[in-house]
Design a protein that fits this description.
about 450 residues, alpha+beta, three-stranded antiparallel β-sheet, 13 helices, 12 strands
Length: about 450
């Protein structure tokens, strides 16, 4: 039996309906006759969106900054495998080897995946399996050519041919993929929709308006902001005016000269006409920026484009919204990678569903290391198990830490050699205090020392 047949058989068993099923009707809201045409329309629609957003990302620095900054925030900490309630060294080793083999330990690869998810609304990864029965690489597939083959309920009709890649020119099928070969992540994908929505999907028009407004500002400043002179030569005839221009030609043709001298033998005056003095007070520019970022789920204040004085409490609320957006990106990326890792475990003969495990991006809560450590110490004072604190709060590798703890306990007293005896309490442990109010400008929230 071939590798393809084995894996396809596993997914067929997992996806097949029970013998007695209550599934009835259709989940498609439109007339059922429109279903095939709607599928074709969704592929064309996502292709148009992606082409338009890619062009904006290349030409609009604001759009590029939004995609790059959010992708950087979401993936800056690295990815780790967490196994809960059980200790399985083989699973941990397989997962860690897989992370290195598919280059998820490299920040630029993680950032590329997150950025593709934001730009295209989808991240499609092909699991490349070698003859060694392991995943050797994750290939990022172009979303605008990929199509899932599902029925009107959103279920795959054939796990052995779950996805196809379409020729963008002739709209013909190039190749097909089994369900296990593709890991697909999507943003804001609704029921019976084949594709997710890009980050700025609803704000594409606004991004173009911002670009247009910026161009208008430059044109207006160039045309109307220049300093001009009004020359009044009283009673001068046309030929006298021509003579006046000729006599003052050098000053008139060089307006940037720090000293301009004009001469006239007629009664009159020269009045300086200032340019447009209100170019820095155009409120519609800030309005467009606010509406653009609000439509993307974040605020313009986090990107330094709004100079309004914002109440600290309001700013912290908007910062919480930003953190939620980042966590959604992290969750989607991790869920997509977990699909691939699940296939890796199947290839190694391990039933991943029998264990409680997870892939995590470090810094998922988007907090400082000091705040995370304070939270862990407070959890310890409440009697929370050390393993939970290490894995869930600190996001540290429990297996390595446990090994080091066991080795240290076998060799020496961890307190006697590090802290002076006069600092210890009756039980030989240093007293620990928790300082309330871990705010900016305050002292550390932890204290180890004398009572």
């Amino acid at each position: 039996m071939s590798l393809w047949t084995k894996i396809t058989g596993l997914f067929k068993k997992a996806d097949s309906a029970p013998a007695e099923s209550t599934l009835r009707g259709t989940g498609y809201a439109k007339p059922i006759a429109m279903w095939p045409w709607d599928q074709i329309g969704q592929l064309n629609d996502i292709r148009t969106k992606i082409d338009e957003i890619d062009a904006l990302d290349e030409s609009n620095g604001q759009v590029k900054q939004l995609h790059s900054k959010l992708a950087k925030f979401a993936t800056r900490g690295g990815v780790s495998f967490v196994l809960r309630n059980d200790e399985n060294e083989r699973m941990t080793q397989i997962a860690n080897d897989w992370i290195k083999r598919v280059h998820l330990d490299k920040r630029d690869i993680r950032k590329e995946h997150a950025r593709r998810l934001l730009k295209h609304g989808n991240i499609v990864l092909q699991n490349v399996v070698s003859s060694s029965d392991r995943i050797e690489a994750l290939v990022v597939m172009p979303t605008q050519t990929m199509k899932p083959l599902v029925d009107d309920r959103g279920q795959f009709t054939n796990p052995a041919k779950a996805y196809v890649q379409m020729d963008p020119m002739g709209m013909t099928e190039v190749t097909s993929f089994a369900k296990w070969q593709i890991s697909w992540g999507a943003l804001d994908r609704e029921a019976n929709r084949l594709y997710g929505r890009p980050m700025i999907d609803a704000e594409r028009k606004r991004a173009k308006q911002i670009t247009m407004t910026d161009d208008d500002l430059v044109i207006r400043r160039r045309v109307r902001a220049a300093l001009r002179y009004l020359h009044i030569v009283e009673g001068a005839r046309p030929e006298e005016m021509d003579s006046y221009r000729a006599d003052n030609k050098d000053s008139l043709e060089n307006p940037f000269n720090p000293v301009n001298d004009f001469f006239s033998n007629k009664a009159g005056a020269i009045t300086a006409i200032q340019g447009d003095a209100n170019l820095d007070q155009i409120a519609d520019v800030q309005l467009l920026n606010k509406k653009f970022y609000a439509g993307c789920g974040v605020t313009a204040h986090q990107f330094g484009l709004i100079e309004d004085d914002l109440n600290r409490d309001v700013y912290e609320d908007t910062l919480g919204d930003l953190f939620e957006v980042i966590e959604d990106i992290q969750e989607t990326c991790c869920d997509t990678w977990e699909e691939s890792l699940r296939v890796e475990f199947l290839l190694a003969g391990i039933n991943a569903d029998a264990y409680d495990w997870d892939l995590k991006l470090e810094g998922r809560k988007v907090e400082t290391p000091n705040q995370r450590m304070d939270r862990g110490i407070k959890a310890q004072t409440m009697g929370i198990p050390l393993k939970y604190i290490v894995t869930e709060i600190l996001n540290w590798p429990w297996e390595k830490i446990k090994t080091m703890i066991d080795e240290e306990a076998a060799e020496m007293d961890p307190y006697g050699a590090r802290i002076d005896d006069e600092l210890n309490d009756d039980q030989g442990k240093p007293p620990l205090k928790i300082v309330e109010g871990n705010q900016r400008g305050k002292q550390s929230a932890t204290y180890v020392g004398k009572k």
